[in-house]
TrEMBL record:
Major subcellular site: membrane
Keywords for the protein's UniProt record, in alphabetical order: Cell outer membrane, Membrane, Receptor, Signal, TonB box, Transmembrane, Transmembrane beta strand, Transport
Gene Ontology molecular-function annotations: siderophore uptake transmembrane transporter activity
Keyword set includes Membrane: yes
Family statement: Belongs to the TonB-dependent receptor family.
Identification of the protein by name: TonB-dependent receptor
Organism of provenance: Neolewinella aurantiaca
Signal sequence range: 1-21
UniProt xrefs under SUPFAM superfamilies: Porins (SSF56935)
Bilayer topology: Multi-pass membrane protein
PROSITE patterns: TONB_DEPENDENT_REC_3
Length: 670
C-alpha cells in the first residue's frame, strides 16, 4: 500500500491548483460514432464496415491500462507476449504486418519480429479504440490486409480547464501513473500529459536466477496537442508524442565463488511522433481532410559487464547496437456527403508513405545501402450509393506504386442492409496487398533467444477476404442484442518466419494460407443493474505442412469463449464485473530431425478477472480494485517442442499473461 500511495503522489500533488468549483473535465461522447474507414464520422450502426468500438469507460472499469491488455480480452484477437520483443497481435488468424496499428489514422512504426509492441501504447491519452477486421488495403494500403486498430484521441473539451490524474499498483510489482491537463482559450485548445510505468516483477536476484520469466521495464511517455477551430468549417490539430522504454535482461552470476561477474543487456526504445490533421468543409455536401505524420523509432541495445568484487561496470565490446526507423506519411481526401437525401456520395484520396531503416543490423546487400527505404504512392476512389432507404453499397478501388514491388489494383465492395430498425446485415469482399517491409527484407536479429535474418528474395502477398455479419437489437421489452459473423481469408505468398537451417530463422513465402470461421455473441441487459454478455468463436487455421503424403488435416481448429457479468448501482456510482475468456487447445504439426511429421499441441486455458469500481464526489473521483488472472495462468503447456522457435525464451510452455495480481487504482477528474 505504501508503494501505491507513493506512486500516486506526483499525480495528485497538483490538485489544489485546479480547485475551482466550475472546473470540470468534459469530452464529447463519441461512443456511437466511428471514423475508421469512413468518408465522415458515422454512427456505428450505419457504417458499411463492422467496427468494434472499445471505449475509455470500458477499459477503466476493468483496470486496463495498455492496448495489449485491452485486446487480450476480445474474441478472435490473440496477443502473443515476448519478454524481449513485446506483445504482438493477430485477428481472426492473421497477424504480424497484416495488422495496421494507427493513432488518429497515422501508422505506428517500429515493428520487432514483425509486430508492433502493443504494451508500449498506454491508453491514458485515448478516448476510444476502433477495430476493423478484414482487409482494408483499398483504404489504408499495404499493412492493412488483415485489419486495422485505430487509437482515437479525445477531440474537444467543453470547460475552460480540464485536469485528470491517476495511478494504479498491481501486486506483481508494477505501477502506473499519469497526469493530463487541458486549457480552452477561445478558438484554441491545448492539452497534454505525462504517463509513467514501472514493472519490476521481483528482486534482482530472482530475475538473475531465471525464476521469473518476465523482464523488468520502465516507460515514460508524454504528449502535447494543439487544436484550432475558428468555425464549424475548419479544424486543425497538431499532435506530438514522445516515448522511452528501458528493458533490462539480468544475466546469471558467473564464477560465484571467485571474482563473480554478470552480463546484463539493456534495450532502450525511443519513439517520437509528429502528426498534423486539418479538416475543411467547403459546403454541407463537400469536405476535405489532410493527415500528415512524421515518426521516428530507435532501439538501442547495450551490454554491460558488472564485476561484483569490486563493484565496477563496463561496456562489453561488440555488445552494442542501434536500429532506427523513420516513417513519413501524407494522406489527403476529398469527399461528398450523402446527407439531405442524396443517394450518391464519394471519396477521392491520395497518399504518400515512405519508411527508412538504419543500424548495424540493417543492410541492403543488393545495393550495399545502410539506409534502405521503401516508398509507396497511391490513389483511391470510393463510391457509396443508397439505392433504397434500407440498402447502401460501397465500392473502393486503390491504385498504387511501390518502389520495390509491383502494386496491383486493389478493390473492395461492401453492402449494408437494414430490413428493420432491429436488423443490420453486412456483406463484404476486399482484396489485400502487402509488400515486404524493411525488417523482413534487411533486418538481422541475433541474441540468446532469437536468431532471425532478413531475406531479399520475398514476393509480395496477395489476399482475398469475404465476410458476412448480422446484428439484431431488441427494445425495452426485449433487452437482447445478438451479433454474429462469418469470415474467410486467403493469402497467396504469405510471408512468415521459418527454420531454414537448424535453428536459424528467416522470412519465406508460403504458397497459400487460409483462415475461416465464425463468431456469435449475445448481450442481455434486463434492467439498469445487470448486463450479461456471452460469446463464442471458432477459427480454422490452414496447416501448411499438410499434403498428400501425410495424414495431417488441412485445417486446425481454435475455439474461444468469452463471458462478462456486470452488476451496477447507478445511483451509488458502483459497479462490479467478472470477465472470463477461454481459449481452446490448438493442434500443431512440425517436422522432427528426421523429417517426419510430429503432432503436438498448445494447451487450452482460462483467464478470469474481477473488478469493482466506485465513483465519489460527483463522479470526480474513481476508485478501481480487483484481481487479474484469478486462476494464475502464466503459461500454457506446449507438447512436441512446438514452443521452440525464432522467439523462444528457452523455457517449456508458452507465456500468455502475468500471474495472479491484485490491483488498486485511483483516478481524479476535475
Amino acid at each position: 500500500m505504501n508503494k501505491f500511495i507513493s506512486s500516486l503522489f506526483f499525480a495528485l500533488i497538483a490538485v489544489p491548483v485546479f480547485g475551482q468549483a466550475d472546473s470540470l473535465i468534459l469530452s464529447v461522447d463519441l461512443d456511437d460514432v466511428v471514423v475508421t474507414a469512413q468518408y465522415a464520422p458515422t454512427e456505428t450502426r450505419n457504417a458499411v464496415h463492422r467496427v468494434t468500438v472499445l471505449t475509455q469507460r470500458e477499459w477503466r472499469a476493468q483496470g486496463i491500462n495498455d492496448l495489449s491488455e485491452l485486446l487480450q480480452r476480445q474474441l478472435t484477437m490473440s496477443v502473443s507476449p515476448d519478454p524481449i520483443l513485446g506483445t504482438g497481435l493477430s485477428i481472426q488468424g492473421l497477424g504480424g504486418q497484416n495488422i495496421q496499428v494507427m493513432i488518429d489514422g497515422v501508422p505506428v512504426i517500429g515493428r520487432l519480429g514483425g509486430e508492433i509492441d502493443l504494451s508500449q501504447l498506454n491508453l491514458a491519452r485515448f478516448a476510444r479504440v476502433e477495430v476493423v477486421a478484414g482487409a482494408l488495403s483499398a483504404r489504408y494500403g499495404s499493412d492493412a490486409a488483415g485489419g486495422v486498430v485505430n487509437l482515437i484521441t479525445a477531440t474537444e473539451q467543453d470547460a475552460a480547464w480540464k485536469f485528470e490524474a491517476g495511478g494504479q499498483y498491481e501486486t506483481v510489482d508494477l505501477d502506473r501513473q499519469y497526469v493530463r491537463l487541458g486549457r480552452q482559450l477561445g478558438d484554441f485548445q491545448v492539452d497534454g500529459g505525462i504517463d509513467r510505468y514501472q514493472a519490476r516483477f521481483g528482486s534482482v536476484d530472482s530475475l538473475r536466477a531465471g525464476v521469473i520469466p518476465w523482464n523488468p521495464k520502465e516507460q515514460l511517455g508524454y504528449d502535447l496537442n494543439l487544436r484550432y477551430r475558428p468555425s464549424d468549417s475548419l479544424q486543425v490539430h497538431y499532435g506530438y508524442r514522445a516515448f522511452e522504454e528501458t528493458l533490462t535482461l539480468y544475466g546469471e552470476v558467473r564464477r560465484p565463488q571467485y571474482l563473480p561477474y554478470v552480463s546484463d543487456q539493456l534495450y532502450t526504445t525511443t519513439r517520437m511522433d509528429h502528426s498534423l490533421s486539418a479538416k475543411y468543409q467547403f459546403s454541407p455536401m463537400l469536405h476535405s481532410e489532410l493527415t500528415a505524420g512524421w515518426n521516428t523509432f530507435e532501439r538501442l541495445k547495450r551490454t554491460e559487464r558488472r564485476d561484483l568484487e569490486p563493484d565496477t561496470t563496463s561496456l562489453v565490446a561488440g555488445g552494442q547496437d542501434t536500429t532506427a526507423y523513420t516513417g513519413q506519411m501524407v494522406r489527403f481526401s476529398l469527399a461528398t456527403s450523402d446527407a439531405e437525401g442524396r443517394k450518391l456520395s464519394g471519396q477521392l484520396g491520395l497518399e504518400y508513405r515512405r519508411e527508412t531503416g538504419s543500424g548495424g543490423r540493417i543492410l541492403d546487400t543488393a545495393s550495399q545501402s545502410l539506409t534502405p527505404a521503401i516508398t509507396n504512392l497511391a490513389a483511391w476512389l470510393g463510391l457509396r450509393y443508397r439505392f433504397h432507404s434500407n440498402w447502401t453499397a460501397e465500392a473502393t478501388t486503390r491504385l498504387g506504386h511501390n518502389s520495390r514491388y509491383g502494386h496491383p489494383v486493389v478493390p473492395a465492395v461492401h453492402l449494408l442492409w437494414k430490413p428493420s430498425r432491429a436488423w443490420r446485415w453486412r456483406l463484404g469482399y476486399a482484396a489485400g496487398f502487402r509488400a515486404p517491409g524493411i525488417q523482413e527484407l534487411f533486418f538481422n536479429f541475433v541474441d540468446v533467444n532469437h536468431y532471425i535474418i532478413g531475406s531479399q528474395n520475398l514476393t509480395a502477398e496477395r489476399s482475398q477476404n469475404f465476410r458476412l455479419s448480422g446484428e439484431w437489437t431488441g427494445n425495452s421489452r426485449k433487452p437482447l442484442t445478438v451479433t454474429g459473423e462469418l469470415f474467410y481469408n486467403s493469402i497467396k505468398n504469405r510471408i512468415t518466419l521459418a527454420d531454414v537451417d537448424d535453428g536459424i530463422f528467416s522470412y519465406v513465402n508460403l504458397d497459400e494460407y487460409k483462415t475461416y470461421g465464425g463468431t456469435l455473441q449475445l448481450n442481455y441487459s434486463p434492467n439498469e443493474h445487470w448486463s450479461i454478455t456471452s460469446g463464442g468463436a471458432l477459427t480454422r487455421l490452414f496447416n501448411s505442412l499438410a499434403n498428400a503424403e501425410n495424414d495431417a488435416p488441412d485445417f486446425l481448429t481454435l475455439g474461444e469463449v468469452s463471458n462478462q457479468l456486470i452488476y451496477r448501482l447507478p445511483r451509488a456510482g458502483f459497479s462490479a464485473r467478472l470477465d472470463h475468456r477461454y481459449v481452446g487447445r490448438q493442434d500443431r504439426y512440425q517436422a522432427d530431425a528426421d523429417g517426419h511429421l510430429v503432432r503436438g499441441f498448445v494447451g487450452d486455458y482460462h483467464l478470469l478477472h474481477f473488478t469493482a469500481n466506485k465513483q465519489f464526489w460527483k463522479d470526480r473521483v474513481s476508485v478501481t480494485a480487483g484481481v487479474k488472472n484469478i486462476l494464475d495462468r502464466e503459461r500454457v503447456h506446449v507438447s512436441s517442442g512446438a514452443a521452440a522457435g525464432a522467439h523462444s525464451g528457452g523455457e517449456a510452455g508458452q507465456l500468455i499473461d502475468f500471474g495472479r495480481s491484485g490491483f488498486l487504482g485511483l483516478t481524479l477528474h476535475w
